[in-house]
Amino acid sequence: MCGPGASRPDPTAGMPAIVDLPPPEIVASSRPSQRQACPRCGSQAYRDKQCYRTLHDFGNLDLWCPRDLVVTSSQHSCTQCHTYVNADLSDLAPPGGQDTHRVVDLAVRLVVEDGLPSRPASWHLWRDHRVFVPCATLQNWVEAGGKKAQARMDTDFLDWALADFSGYVAAEERYDGPFCMLSVVDNRC
After folding, report:
1. What does the pLDDT average to over 95-105?
2. pLDDT over 60 at 2, yes or no
3. Cα gap 186→189, rounded to integer Å
4. CA–CA separation, 124 and 103 (whole Å)
5. Does residue 27 contact residue 70 with C-beta atoms inside 8 Å?
């Protein structure tokens, strides 16, 4: 039944199977460098060959297809310790990761800040940004983010704060939409 007011099913309403995904748009990028310091011994490692790394980024919404960044970078050979060193691409993606920082940040924000479960967050990423992130990968990113944040917390601050604690606190909270700022002070010291 076609005509005015007829509703047509959305072909992207459900999560597609990986084999049914449209082919990605390939965006080439190059990061050549002549020399790089060896992380092991600190000596200068000279460029030996090129390597390629494919990273998934936000899709092209004009073509409704995913987008892959194919980064050509240099691989360096250290003559002192006889190791190979890849060019640093940590500004684009986590080491060993297949998705850019932009994708990881948005995915984790959807789960942590917006409170979406992993499966709806994965659907949201595909529907609105044309990037496919499996639910298990999304859950791993969220768990790793919590562990990293916990590792960054400095316990020296807590020891310092409790050293002269009087036992009395004054607390106040301020709300701004979904955000809350909590202020807690020792009102005797």
Report:
1. 89
2. no
3. 6
4. 12
5. yes
Per-residue confidence (pLDDT) for residue 70, from 0 to 100: 92
Q: Is residue 87 within 8 Å of 34, Cβ to Cβ? A: no
- Residue 10 binned pLDDT confidence (cut-offs 50, 70, 90): low
Given a contact cutoff of 8 angstroms between Cβ atoms, the answer to whether 183 and 173 are in contact is yes
Q: Which residues pair with 65 in a beta bridge?
A: 60
Residue 110 class from Cβ within 10 Å (0-12 exposed, 13-18 middle, 19+ buried)?
buried
Structure tokens at 151: 């590792």
- Contact present, 55 and 9 (Cβ < 8 Å): no
Torsion of CA 44, 45, 51, 53, to 10 degrees: -50
Comparing C-alpha atoms, which of 106, 89, 108 is closest to residue 30?
89
SS3 107: helix
| Domain extents in the chain | 22-95, 99-156
Determine the pLDDT at residue 146: 61
Instruction: State the Cα–Cα distance between residues 182 and 161, nearest whole angstrom.
Output: 16
The amino acid sitting at 96 is G
Q: With contact defined as beta carbons under 8 Å apart, do 155 and 168 qualify?
A: no
Instruction: Give the tokens for residue 152.
Output: 């960054």
Of 30, 24, 22, 23, nearest in space to 92 by CA: 30
Provide the pLDDT for residue 5: 61
- The pLDDT value recorded for residue 15 is 58
